[in-house]
C-alpha cells in the first residue's frame, strides 16, 4: 500500500555515492601526504642547504627525539590549547546563545562585539604579559581572547538561524526554558559550534606558538624555537612535523565528533 | 433533515462538558485586528474543522489556542482553565500541535521526537511507559520499522505521520492541527485523513483542524466552524450527517454533496 511506496522514497539518502567512503578519503589524504613529501625531497635535493634537510634526515631526527621529553612538550601545549579553547567556549557559548535568543541582549552586546572584534588581539600579547605575568595565565588568556569573538558571532548566528516555529510544538506543550535549550537551541546551533571549534583549533595553535616563545621551558612552540636557536634544523623540522601531526589528530577528533552528532544532517 | 443551522454559539456549551471557549477574542499585531472579536463554544470531544479564506485568522485562532501568542484580547479557556500567553498553557492543559511543516526536530529520530514531547507533557510517567506509548503510536500510524530514521530520511507523508503519532501519544486534551495535509499529494492526504479519524476514535479529544479545503472540512469535521474574512461572528455548521457515515462512503454520499453546496453558498454570501 502507500506505506510501502513511502518506504522506498525514504531510502534515497544523500550519502550513497562511493566517492565519499572513508576508504577513498584515506587514499586521497595519503596521496596528498606523499606528494607533499616528494615535493619537499625534491626542493631539499635542489637546494642542498642546511636550512632545508631532506625528509629522510628529518624523520631520522624525529625518531631520535626523547620520547618522555616530547610527551611533556605535547602535553604542556595541549593543556594550554584546551584551557584556552575551553575558556573561549564557556564565555562565547554563553554570550552567543544569549545574544541569539534574546533581542534585548543582542542589542546590548552587539556593539561591544562589533567594536572589539577588529582589534588585532595578538597585539595585546604584551598587555596580557604585563597584567598576567609570563606564566600560564597570559598564554591561556591570549588564546581565549582571540577565539572568543569568533565563537560568539558564529554561535549567535547559528542560534538565530533556527526558525522560530521550531519551538512551537514544545512551547505549546509547556516546555520550560531548560527543555527548549537542550532540545532545540543547543542541537540546532551545534553545527555552528562544531565548525567554530574546528576553526578555533587552527587559530589556537598559531597563537600557542607565539605564547610559547616566552616564559616557558616546555611546549611544542618552545621546542621548535629552541631547536632553531641551537641551529638543530632537523630537530626543528621534526618538531614542526610532530606539531602538525598533533593538530591533525585533533582535527580528526572534531570530525568524528561531528560525524556522531550531525548524523541527522549527513 | 436539518443541516447547517446557524447557531448562536453562546448557548450550546453546557451539554457536553466545557471544551474550548473563546470570549471576545481579538488578536492584533499592531496593524488592525487579525482576528475577532470572536465568541466560540466548542464542547469537549468533538472534531471541529475550521474553514475560512486566507486572512480570516484561522491559523491565528489555532496559535492562540496553542498558547503561542504572546498577547491577545478577550479570553480563551479550555475546560474552564484559561489558556494564557506563551509557555503557560502546558501546565494543566495538554496540547498536541500538528503544524503544517510537521514541526519535527530534525536532529531527533522519529521515536526520539515522540519521546521528547512525552517527556515534557508527561514528566511524571516512567521512561518505560513513555517509550512504550511512543512505540505504540508510531506503530498505529504505520511507521513500524522506521522509528530510528531521522526526519530527513522520511517522506513528507511519513513525517506528518510522526507528527500525528507525537500529538496523540501525549494523550492531549486539545488537539490542534494547522492545515496539516495541505503540502501532501492527494493519495497520501486521503490516507492520512483516514488515519486521523481512526486515531481520534481510539482516543477522542477536542480536535481543532484548520483547513482551507471545503471537502476536507466536511470529510473530517463533526462541526464546521466557518470564519469570514470580514470580522463577523463565526458560523457553526452541524456536520453530523456526514460524520456518522463510514469513512469510505462519505465522498459518494448525497449528504456530502449537499453539505458542500451549502457551505459554498454561505461562503459566497459572506464574502
Automatic annotation (TrEMBL), chain A:
Signal sequence residues: none
Record-linked Pfam families: BPD_transp_1
Keywords: Cell membrane, Membrane, Transmembrane, Transmembrane helix, Transport
UniProt subcellular location: Cell membrane
Species name: Saccharibacillus endophyticus
Predominant localisation class: membrane
CDD domains: TM_PBP2
Similarity annotation: Belongs to the binding-protein-dependent transport system permease family.
Residue stretches spanning the membrane: 26-47, 81-100, 112-134, 140-159, 199-216, 236-257
Lineage: Bacteria, Bacillati, Bacillota, Bacilli, Bacillales
PROSITE patterns assigned: ABC_TM1
Name the record gives this protein: ABC transporter permease
InterPro entries: MetI-like, MetI-like_sf
Residue stretches making up the ABC transmembrane type-1 domain: 74-254
Membrane topology annotation: Multi-pass membrane protein
UniProtKB/TrEMBL annotation, chain B:
Pfam family, any one: ABC_tran
Annotated keywords: ATP-binding, Nucleotide-binding, Transport
Positions of the ABC transporter domain: 20-254
GO molecular function, one term: ATP binding
Protein name per Swiss-Prot or TrEMBL: ABC transporter ATP-binding protein
